[in-house]
């Protein structure tokens, strides 16, 4: 550590002596002074270093936009910003945007531009802006990260359990070719430092960057050195890169509620957002083949959809999402509707019951033409589109979000989407996306450990559509669904855990995937899901977090608190301190929890619901079965049970 810092100081001093320029090194601190960012030219290359107090968080690392180009710093200026803004929906109702920013006007082998560096109390970010004029046709936005030896690493792995914890060698081994193809590290890369603090490496505001690939990470071959890169296609117009973002937290959970990525995003481009309504949705896809207690079997038909709509209307569920097979064929400008159901009857019935509808679209089935797709969905009275298999193209994704907004449609991306961190600020109709393994997707179940990892890794990038909230766990495990896991008895969870997961995973659209009758059979437990004010949170905290082991999330709406905890297959207990409640106020509390007999493999549907009173400073011991969960709904006594 000392050697690195000394080397950095010598490099700066050498640059000053040899060049005799005052514009070769700079220091930028966070508003609270706890983070320090050093930026320097070393051999005409931009380098940075980040210290957190007396600890070097990131050693000397290079920033580059044109390979091997020589950089000259022409001018420097610094500003400080401290204001707040209100998102249309989110984990917080008000977000403070407090940072210091250093702007360096630079020349890169004759191309003029800027390097922007921002320091927040909880993170650091870098961005290049290239001025108008002639520049190379292609560039690669590179950012190097010299991380501490002995760090542990975690990264998403598509529709599989996230990787980690692995050391640097484990990360190197992971990148080796599989089936003839070299792997890449997806964002965010979560780094657990030897001092057990946490960092996340990712990007924000892809919206502002045209002609760029999504950020991926690789290793340089040197211990602890990670490299991020985006290939860029440039023209003669001004070009702005996304932000390279480094988040800091004392715990893994701190990273999930960190507001730096959304603060870095372009402010909203929509003048009117009144039509954007986050909420919960029922979904037909995983229910096909389910036989209700009255003998009715669910499928792709009008009668099944009427049942979903009736339940949504009765329970105040905002949406009903109709997945694939509502159409038979897609040609440009035309959907040939399925003869399995009368879609117009379903649309009319939903309107009568005041339940909004969403429709799926699978781009592999044929290209309708996006300039016609979204207006067509709007003409059907849809409020949103679930867009499947649209690919990982940044420009295409941006255009789809913009076109859906023009038709006043929410959009939910599935099947390997671009994470597009921060886009919910710029286009709040980008309501969620499946940047994870959604439960039972590819007809595989994920484990409690996988859930906790995704909740603390994938979720750093923003809202996730993970399809939690199954109550008929025994039926699903017995293979009584057409689209349940191919391998029976592989879905390890408890119904209390399923309820907790719908709170823990932040999303603007919470898709609950089970049958109405499965929820009605456990109506007292379903109350927790029913009461959640999705997307309307005033405050969110992650109270406990250990990747792969447990998580507790608390969210506030007005004076009410909803708290959800999940444990891995070891099971355990977490002490939840209610210090966040108001003093001199009595609260009613409802517990939705596992019982002593509950077990994720042998008795997943055992649960209990009980009521009590609590006050500020009370400590609740949330006891969870193996693979289990625990939920609490807390509200001031004078609000009453039926408040929301």
From TrEMBL:
Which InterPro entries does the UniProt record give? Aldolase_TIM, GH, GH-type_carb-bd, GH97_C, GH97_catalytic, GH97_N, Glyco_hydro_b, Glycosyl_hydrolase_97
Task: Answer whether the UniProt record assigns the keyword RNA-binding to this protein.
Answer: no
Q: Please report the stretch or stretches of sequence annotated as the Glycosyl-hydrolase 97 N-terminal domain.
A: 28-267
Domain Glycosyl-hydrolase 97 catalytic residues, every copy: 286-434
Pfam families associated with the record: GH97_C, GH97_N, Glyco_hydro_97
Its keywords, alphabetically, are:
Calcium, Glycosidase, Hydrolase
Specify whether Methyltransferase is a keyword of the entry: no
Query: What are the required cofactors?
Result: Ca(2+)
Chain ranges of the Glycosyl-hydrolase 97 C-terminal oligomerisation domain: 536-634
Q: How does it assemble?
A: Monomer.
Q: Which PANTHER family match?
A: GLUCAN 1,4-ALPHA-GLUCOSIDASE SUSB-RELATED
Q: What is this protein called?
A: Alpha-glucosidase
Organism whose genome encodes this protein? Arenibacter algicola
């Amino acid at each position: 550590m000392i050697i690195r810092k000394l080397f950095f100081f010598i490099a700066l001093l050498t640059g000053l002596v040899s060049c005799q320029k005052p514009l070769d090194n700079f220091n930028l601190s966070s508003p609270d002074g706890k983070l320090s960012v050093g930026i320097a030219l070393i051999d005409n290359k931009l380098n940075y270093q980040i210290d957190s107090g007396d600890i070097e968080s990131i050693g000397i690392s290079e920033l580059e936009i044109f390979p091997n180009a020589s950089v000259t710093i022409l001018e420097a200026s610094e500003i400080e910003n401290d204001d707040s803004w209100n998102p249309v929906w989110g984990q917080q109702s008000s977000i403070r945007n407090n940072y210091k920013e250093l702007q360096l006007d630079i020349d890169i082998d004759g191309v003029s531009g800027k390097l922007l560096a921002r320091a927040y109390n909880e993170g650091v970010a870098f961005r290049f802006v290239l001025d108008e004029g002639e520049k190379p046709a292609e560039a690669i936005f590179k950012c190097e990260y010299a991380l501490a030896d002995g760090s542990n690493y975690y990264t998403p792995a598509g529709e599989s359990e996230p990787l980690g914890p692995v050391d640097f060698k484990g990360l190197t081994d992971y990148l080796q070719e599989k089936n003839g193809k070299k792997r890449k590290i997806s964002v965010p890369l979560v780094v657990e430092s030897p001092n057990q603090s946490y960092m996340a490496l990712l990007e924000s505001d892809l919206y502002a960057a045209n002609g760029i690939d999504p950020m991926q990470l690789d290793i340089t071959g040197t211990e602890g050195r990670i490299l991020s890169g985006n290939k860029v296609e440039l023209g003669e117009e001004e070009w702005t890169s996304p932000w390279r973002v480094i988040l800091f937290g004392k715990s893994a959970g701190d990273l999930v509620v960190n507001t730096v990525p959304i603060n870095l995003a372009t402010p909203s481009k929509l003048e009117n957002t009144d039509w954007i309504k986050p909420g919960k949705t029922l979904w037909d896809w995983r229910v096909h083949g389910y036989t209700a207690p009255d003998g009715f079997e669910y499928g792709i038909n009008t009668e099944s959809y009427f049942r979903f709509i009736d339940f949504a209307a009765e329970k105040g569920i905002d949406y009903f999402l109709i997945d694939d097979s509502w159409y038979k064929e897609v040609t440009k400008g035309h959907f040939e509707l399925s003869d399995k159901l009368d879609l117009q009857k379903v649309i009319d019935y939903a309107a009568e019951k005041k339940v909004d509808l969403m429709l799926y679209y699978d781009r592999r089935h044929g290209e309708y033409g996006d300039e016609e797709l979204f207006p067509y969905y709007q003409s059907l009275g849809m409020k949103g589109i679930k867009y499947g298999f649209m690919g990982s193209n940044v420009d295409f994704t941006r255009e789809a979000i913009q076109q859906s907004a023009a038709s006043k449609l929410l959009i939910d991306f599935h099947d390997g989407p671009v994470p597009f961190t921060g886009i919910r600020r710029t286009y709040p109709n980008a309501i969620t996306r499946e940047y994870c393994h959604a439960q039972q997707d590819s007809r595989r179940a994920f484990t409690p450990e996988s859930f906790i990892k995704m909740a603390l890794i994938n979720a750093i990038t923003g809202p996730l559509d993970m399809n939690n909230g199954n109550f008929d766990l025994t039926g699903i495990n017995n293979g009584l669904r057409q689209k349940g896991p191919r391998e029976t008895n592989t879905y390890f969870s408890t119904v209390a855990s399923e309820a907790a997961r719908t709170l823990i995973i932040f999303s603007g659209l919470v898709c609950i995937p089970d049958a109405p009758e499965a929820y009605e059979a456990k109506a007292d437990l379903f109350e927790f899901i029913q009461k959640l004010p999705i997307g309307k949170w005033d405050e969110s905290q992650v109270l406990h977090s250990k990747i792969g082991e447990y998580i507790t999330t608390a969210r506030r709406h007005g004076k009410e608190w909803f708290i959800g905890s999940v444990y891995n297959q070891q099971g355990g207990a977490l002490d939840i301190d209610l210090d966040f409640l108001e003093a001199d106020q009595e609260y009613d509390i409802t517990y939705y929890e596992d019982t002593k007999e509950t077990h994720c493999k042998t008795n997943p549907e055992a649960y209990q619901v009980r009521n009590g009173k609590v006050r500020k400073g009370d400590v609740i011991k949330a006891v969870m079965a193996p693979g289990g969960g625990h939920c609490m709904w807390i509200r001031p006594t004078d609000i009453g049970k039926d408040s929301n």
